Amino acid sequence: MRRFAAFAATLVALSACSTSDTTGPGGLVPPSNLTYRLIPSGDPDVPQGIRLTWDPSDDGRIANYVVYSRASSSDTWGRRAETTSPSFDDQGVPDAEYYVTAESADGVESDGTNVVVVDEGNRLPAPSGLASVSLDQAIQLSWSSDARTARPELFDYYRVYSTPYDLDRDVCEDGWVLEGTTVSEDFIASGLPNGAPRCFAVSTVSRDGHESDWTTPRADTPRYDARNVLLWDAQTDLTASGFAFELPATGELGAVVSGSRGDIDFRVDRASDGSLWMTPVRPGTSVALYGSIAVEDLTSIDWAPLNGYSTGAIEAVPGYGYVYEMQHTDGLHYGAVRVTAVGADYVILDWAYQTDPGNPELSVRR
Q: Is 276 left (phi over 0), alpha (psi -120 to 50) or beta?
């Protein structure tokens, strides 16, 4: 059990008790206003250390400061360290209580500062409701504000962590790293490789450095996307009517090419009534309408549906989303399309593509 855990519930963050009976009479002007801040490590039970800071004394006889600590309120004070600066970093699991004196060159000490007590009661709860949205080389994370609003006077910031995710075994692998910190309930983890699944988790940090437990990890996978891609119908301009999420021969993504090619995923065709349709072309490619109503944005297209795919043409309707299932040599791949505009002879769309084979994540917002 941590040294400060047994009594944390009964102690307060700052104690007004005197320490003068543990120091020499000295007559030196003591330092004042001792405060502490834990240094989070990612493990709420084992902080990286504690940082003590105080207001220095203006007594010219002072040669250094002496830090005292003890593991519990019933233990004897021990001389922990000496320093010439008005701060001290104690590495590892901290003691329970600290105070500081000033010391002259001949070893005479002042009275002590106030005693600070490492109060585990200041630990905030973990955030809840962690959600994510897949982006191009990034993941947007968001969560509830309940951890901050539980005790807003104690809240300081959030820490965001990530690690690789094994999609086949449905486990977060070892190797958690700190992605960054934020004071708001959202965060964009950027610079991530597309098609590489990762787990994410968030913790809350109080003003005195206590870190909460982590959220339940959330898995997501960055994917390629692009906005406002123009495709002409094949009857108007065959050379710019075809689209491939990925060209198998070259690996090119989001290619607008001739609708006469056999290696494209779909072609835009105009029907006799003037409506425009997206026709699957390459063997192994099929399409499904994403829901029965328009979607707000490309990122609103969630997991690829399990069924409902067809190799027949589907009408391009502004605001609606579509999911393509494509059989490649390395397995199934999924792509998403949101039609933003339909003209008399063209379609403008946004698209996203998941390069991780078998991964149905296009934009995860469950």
A: beta
